[in-house]
């Protein structure tokens, strides 16, 4: 045998020398949930180890992440039911929980990268990502709300705006609003291939943001489709996106690879709440080895072609020095 692949696996030193893919702190983005109030830190039942923080505790959490070298954060608000309405006006109201959180994190930690979520659902009394009329999700009318949100986020100090709504034309619309208002340096990370997935369940528990009727299949992508992701990716690229995202990650590694092969833009992948819950539940049952399962998940997403990974595991892998 001339070729014996096992020679390159014979010691830890050689295995590390030939390792093709790595995950480092710089690749990780940590999603954080925010609630109104003071000194709040409540665990999300379906996401062990993940909490909703009031702004004071959010700042402490960001600080402890920064000390671990984790410097990118994606913020999501849990909005009181009483503040929700059809037009998600709370999403761009001056002084709202979310806008205060953005500006306080940026004020305390100017070197942190703050990514903000642009979508109506946490603020919508319908629980949808667009304006609802007679059971329909309106596209172009929704863009106006998204533009206002994106502008409010930029004014509060957001580094990257991440539209997760899947309305057509939103990247171009938001890019124009940002540029016209002097925010040409604010980036857009577009949820390009966002699927109508079962794996968002725990996130909707965390934010209490589940749709009040129907589902999101009229705007999020069909899990059966791969080529359609290319249409979304090309549009977002042409409309000015700086990053393309695939979401969820693990059930869509093929889509990550496909986009990687078809764009020069960096790809982000969202290792979503249901993926986290699935792994944690098995670990809690003693069915998976924690360190090995989690690092394998993150490596596989990088191997498929993601540059950045949004993951609820971000802090624990650094705290435990698993990378
Ligand atoms: C909402 C949004 C969702 C997630 C991120 N932004 C849920 C949804 O589309 O219903 C899910 C993230 C996760 O599950 O971790 N626009």
TrEMBL record:
Enzyme Commission identifier(s): 4.2.1.24
Keyword tags: Heme biosynthesis, Lyase, Porphyrin biosynthesis
UniProt catalytic activity: 2 5-aminolevulinate = porphobilinogen + 2 H2O + H(+)
Source superkingdom: Bacteria
Bilayer-crossing regions: none
Pfam families referenced in this protein's UniProt entry, alphabetically: ALAD
Record has Signal as a keyword: no
Keyword Lyase: yes
SUPFAM superfamilies: Aldolase (SSF51569)
GO molecular function: porphobilinogen synthase activity
EC category: lyase
The protein's annotated pathway: Porphyrin-containing compound metabolism; protoporphyrin-IX biosynthesis; coproporphyrinogen-III from 5-aminolevulinate: step 1/4
Assembly: Homooctamer.
Matching NCBIfam families: PRK09283.1
Family indicated by similarity: Belongs to the ALAD family.
Name listed for the protein in its UniProt record: Delta-aminolevulinic acid dehydratase
Protein species of origin: Mucilaginibacter roseus
